[in-house]
């Protein structure tokens, strides 16, 4: 069901004219990252940085 939901979301984004979709996660779980790769995401395309107020 998760893959179907992700595919529908990506299809809707494409239909709306989006040229890419980005996903950020705080998960370090290998299974979570495997799921994202199985949905078509690449983990090495971008790098994200986070700043939190002190």
Structural account:
The chain has 54 residues and is mainly α. It has two helices and no strands. It is globular, with a radius of gyration of 13 Å. The mean pLDDT is 94.
Number of strands: 0
Q: Specify the number of helices.
A: 2
Low-confidence spans? none
Structural class, from secondary structure content?
Answer: mainly alpha
Q: Element order, helices and strands?
A: HH
Let me know the largest β-sheet.
none
Shape: globular
Rounded to the nearest angstrom, the radius of gyration is 13 Å
Rounded mean pLDDT is 94
Instruction: Report the β-strand fraction as a percent range.
Output: under 5%
Helix content: 40-55%
Distance between the termini: 40 Å
Short account of what is shown:
With 54 residues, the protein is mainly α. It has helices at 2-15, 30-38.
List the helices and strands and how they pair.
Elements lengths: L1 H14 L14 H9 L16
What labels would you give this structure?
mainly alpha, globular
């Amino acid at each position: 069901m998760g893959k179907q939901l992700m595919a529908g979301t990506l299809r809707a984004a494409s239909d709306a004219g989006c040229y890419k979709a980005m996903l950020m996660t705080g998960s370090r779980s290998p299974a979570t990252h495997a799921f994202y790769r199985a949905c078509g995401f690449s983990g090495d395309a971008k790098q994200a940085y986070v700043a939190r107020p002190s």
